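Sample intake sheet
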Amino acid sequence: MVSGAERHVLILGGTTEARRLAAELAADPGLRVTSSLAGRVAEPRLPAGEVRIGGFGGPEGLAHWLREQQVAALIDATHPFAGTISFNAAQAAAAVHVPLLAVRRPGWVAGPGDRWHPVGSLAEAAGVLPALGGRAFLTTGRMGLAAFAHLEGMWFLVRSVDAPEPPVPARMEVVLERGPFTLEGERELLRRHAIDVLVTKDSGAAATSAKLTAAREAGIPVVVVRRPPAPDGVPVADGPAGAAEWLRRTLA
C-alpha cells in the first residue's frame, strides 16, 4: 500500500468494521497498525496488529499520543453512538495535523410493515415507552439503563455483552449474549418473553438487524434512537474497503 519507511496508523476500534480494517492493513509490511479499544467490554475481540486498551485523556491526551507515536493517519471506526471519542478525534487530529477518516456503517431503513418510533435519545425513548407496551426488549447496551430505571410499571428484557450495573430498572431480566443474532433466535426471544415493544439504537449492520425483522413479523412497535451527529468536516467511508482506499490515497 505504501512505500518507504513504515507508516503508523491508529484505528479507534471496537467494531466489526474496525477489526476487518485492522486485519487488512496489518497484512501490509509498510504499515504499523495500532487499534485502540475503550475497555468497556471485559473480554473484547482483539484485532490484528498492536492493541491498546483504555482512554487517552480527552482530545489533548489523544493529540499528545498521535504526536509521540508519530501517527501518519487516524481512522475513527468506533460505534456510531460513541460520540465523545469521535469529537475528541476530530479535535486532536486537527491540532496535530494528522489526516482523519470516520468509518460509519449505513444506518437501518424502515420498510413496509415496520412500526418505528424514531427518538433523539434514551431519555426520549423512555418517555414514549409506556404508551407503546408493558414488556420491553432493551438492546441499547448496558451503559444507558439508568434512563429507564424510573419506569416501575414496566418489565424489561435487557441484552448486553457484560452484566449491567445500577441504576437499572427494578423489574428486569438480563441476557448476556454477543451478536450476530439469528432471525429464528430473535423470534423465539420475543415469543418466550411476551415482548410487546422493542428499543434499539440505529447502530446499523446485519449482525444485529434480525430483531427488527422479528419485530415486524410480530407487529411489535420499535423505538429507534437516532445516531448523534458526526463531527463537521471529517470525511466518511461506509466500510473497510473505502477506508483502505482513503488510506492509500492519503499515504501515497
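Comment: The mean pLDDT is 94. Helices lie at 16-26, 58-68, 83-96, 122-128, 183-192, 210-218, 240-251.
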